[in-house]
Amino acid sequence: MIKGLPLIFLSWFLFTHHASAQRSTYIIHMDKSSKPMAFPSCHHWYSSTLHSIKSINPTSSDGHYPPSRLIHTYDNAFHGFSVVLSKDELEALKESPGFISAYNDGPVTPDTTHTYKFLSLNTASGIWPASQYGKDVVIGVVDSGIWPESQSFRDEGMTEIPARWKGICQVGQDFNSSMCNKKIIGARFFNNGVLANNPDVTISMNSTRDTFGHGTHVASIAAGSAVENVSFFGYAPGTARGVAPRARLAIYKVLWDEGSYESDALAGIDQAVADGVDILSISLSYRTIDLYENPIAIAAFGAMEKGILVSVSAGNRGPNFATVLEGIPWAVIVASGTVDRWFAGDLMLGNGLTITGWTMFPARATVRNLPLYYNETLSACNSTELLAEAPSAIIICVQSFETAEFSDQISYVSQSNARAAIFISEESSILRSTDFPYPGVVINPEEAKPVIRYASNNSEATASISFQQTILGLDPRPAPTVAESSSRGPARSYPGILKPDIMAPGVLILAAYNPDASVASIGSNVGLSSDYNLESGTSMACPHISGIAALIKAVHPEWTPAAIRSAMMTTANPLDNTRKPIKDQARFFDNDVATPLDMGAGQVDPNRALDPGLIYDVTPQEYVNLICALNYTREQTQSIIRSRSHNCSNPSTDLNYPAFVALYDPTEERTTLTQRFQRTVTNVGTGAATYRVKVKKPKASVVTVSPETLVFQKKNEKQRFSLTIRYKTYEEYVINHGSITWVEEKGKHTVRSPIVVTPAEPSG
Ligand SMILES: *[C@@H]1O[C@H](CO)[C@@H](O)[C@H](O)[C@H]1NC(C)=O
Ligand SMILES: *[C@@H]1O[C@H](CO)[C@@H](O)[C@H](O)[C@H]1NC(C)=O
Ligand SMILES: *[C@@H]1O[C@H](CO)[C@@H](O)[C@H](O)[C@H]1NC(C)=O
Ligand SMILES: *[C@@H]1O[C@H](CO)[C@@H](O)[C@H](O)[C@H]1NC(C)=O
Ligand SMILES: *[C@@H]1O[C@H](CO)[C@@H](O)[C@H](O)[C@H]1NC(C)=O
Ligand SMILES: *[C@@H]1O[C@H](CO)[C@@H](O)[C@H](O)[C@H]1NC(C)=O
Ligand SMILES: *[C@@H]1O[C@H](CO)[C@@H](O)[C@H](O)[C@H]1NC(C)=O
Ligand SMILES: *[C@@H]1O[C@H](CO)[C@@H](O)[C@H](O)[C@H]1NC(C)=O
């Protein structure tokens, strides 16, 4: 006993000493209304607060707060600062007047899936003339910076920068003020958080210049100028253009080769709000956390209050239930879908048969009338030893569970004597991969039957392969489908509001890139770069919505962010190009249709969004009413609302949203549910209008709407209705969905809202 005591004591002592001395970066929320009048600015107040906690803290040697440890102060999207503190100092800070909350600065990652490189295309055209192509709307892009020399950011024909713009073109490494123009009207960079978290790191590109390519890609999707004759090594040739080609870009670099931190992302968003952006495009992910701890949610609340629409990628954690990362009720959360374009190579057999397969080999290789060789053993293509005996011919590789991954097969084959390969596989992920370092085509097992028959029965069999083909149209699958990796709802932060909100193209999108980055390869050691790159993910879907929001904003500058979101959601298309319900790529073989938890209201339809007929608007106070109903502590609530004087007298989760989510408890043996919603719609058509409701009820439900007819005498008039869902089932964990549509009588408007009945939590 006694012998052990000093040891226990010692280890306890070491532990606490370590904990109190260890410093971390924290993001601190402060209540601005508590600032004493004596301080001229919040910055002075925060510095003084930090000074006082240092001086009461005996571990501090000099009693002075080193100013370098105050990382950023935030004064626009929310109030507070980021700082490096020890645990003791944090405890002392919590006692300071005005303190609301603190949380750890965490890492942040961009939302591009590197393993799946998919393509898509934006076809928005009718809304362009009406909006003058998004003229003068400013889109703030918070990402990895920009490659300013890209043709996509030329400013020919653009007018002078509006006087209201307050941003700057920050000078830095390889980036001077001439890099901005009438397209890129702002450029700033934020890396104090990277430096604070990694004190020994050297920033390799200390400026807004994009060394990665992600930020350049995202910015050019949202607002790139038209550039003719571009392609990805011959694939997807044509004119690259952003969704809002006359909108302006303001670039906030917060992602670094050396790391990426929430404190820097917050500083970027905060500055964008101060600079006067109209739209914020955020293709970043944070940890899955509650709204009051989620920096994008908090900053987006402040942006929303200032009339800025915030568009955020849903994340690439799909296809499982409840994987959406950002469940922010006051932002637009964007899911990713496919488009009707794919890349191909033709396989022509010596007997005249031609099969179109998938290829992305990044060159026009000559594979003409070469011998075609099939041998069952060899076709495993699963080791260098096996392939050492491969003939100088086109060989056939069959992918199965026992053999190897496509990426391994192609790497083994590229080290062999074979001249080209035919890969037989039905894995859908391969049929979208841009990583194709060896000449070959991918075909499915059904298509492969005549090829194997021909090769095994003819010693003189030959074949040719042509590359660099781009196919538009219905083949091979309807489009859009929900991309497999797109994160799915409901949001864990609050499942009662539909997230994601909407879907946009996010698969194999061609857009500008960092021309120095390696984006394709030949063999194992030749890297290739390109001014334009194909990328996939919700990161690519998000800037489509940012661009479309800019177009709508150009036409309707008075609309709130909620009104613009409502316009996009109620006009979104739930059908694909075969006029059947949009399918989910993850469930394609079950022929299962996507639910609103996968794609929100459906695929965005920019031309219809311009003229939605009715909108479901939301005021900032109504969002406060929602937050007040979420059973947060006072401090948690204040973290989002940022003020102690907020009005929580009317809490309500029934937000005026253009979607209806009824949550049930799946653990009960028999589910019965009755949920009533109240909604107010505003007539934004040209004048008097009458709308009649059309209901498509979810399975096992009864839906009643009252009244069933809404009569508007004039523009901007509001009408209320209620919707009640009664649901009864013995099935557990099923998601049932339907919709209500307000159909204008003797008019063209249809205003559709999805209805979902879902468990709030995943099974198991
Ligand atoms: C980066 O550039 C900024 C502004 O030019 C400068 O203040 C800062 O010291 C630089 N940081 C590093 C790590 O070089
Ligand atoms: C900025 O850099 C470019 C290219 O290095 C140069 O041509 C230009 O004169 C510079 N502009 C200024 C204002 O220094
Ligand atoms: C693009 O290609 C077309 C057809 O080859 C050619 O006529 C046109 O001049 C090219 N445009 C540019 C800007 O190079
Ligand atoms: C098939 O290939 C394997 C490995 O290269 C070889 O050992 C075998 O002899 C071949 N079979 C025939 C029938 O050619
Ligand atoms: C290659 O695949 C065959 C089955 O087709 C299997 O028997 C063999 O063990 C595999 N070899 C390697 C190295 O994985
Ligand atoms: C080769 O041809 C014969 C006769 O046409 C056919 O019966 C046989 O199935 C073929 N072999 C293969 C491997 O398809
Ligand atoms: C808040 O708590 C009340 C009382 O426990 C409960 O009825 C309500 O469902 C909770 N609200 C939310 C959004 O969780
Ligand atoms: C709070 O809001 C309600 C309406 O939601 C209003 O009646 C009340 O006056 C407000 N209270 C304050 C203090 O603003």
From TrEMBL:
Single GO cellular component term: extracellular region
SUPFAM superfamilies linked to this entry: Subtilisin-like
Record domain Inhibitor I9: where: 25-109
InterPro entries (alphabetical): Peptidase_S8/S53_dom, Peptidase_S8/S53_dom_sf, Peptidase_S8_His-AS, Peptidase_S8_Ser-AS, Peptidase_S8_subtilisin-rel, Peptidases_S8_3, S8pro/Inhibitor_I9, S8pro/Inhibitor_I9_sf
Record key words, sorted: Glycoprotein, Hydrolase, Protease, Secreted, Serine protease, Signal
Annotated compartments: Secreted
Keyword Magnesium: no
Gene3D superfamilies noted in UniProt: 2.60.40.2310, 3.50.30.30, Peptidase S8 propeptide/proteinase inhibitor I9, Peptidase S8/S53 domain
Name of the protein in its database record: Subtilisin-like protease
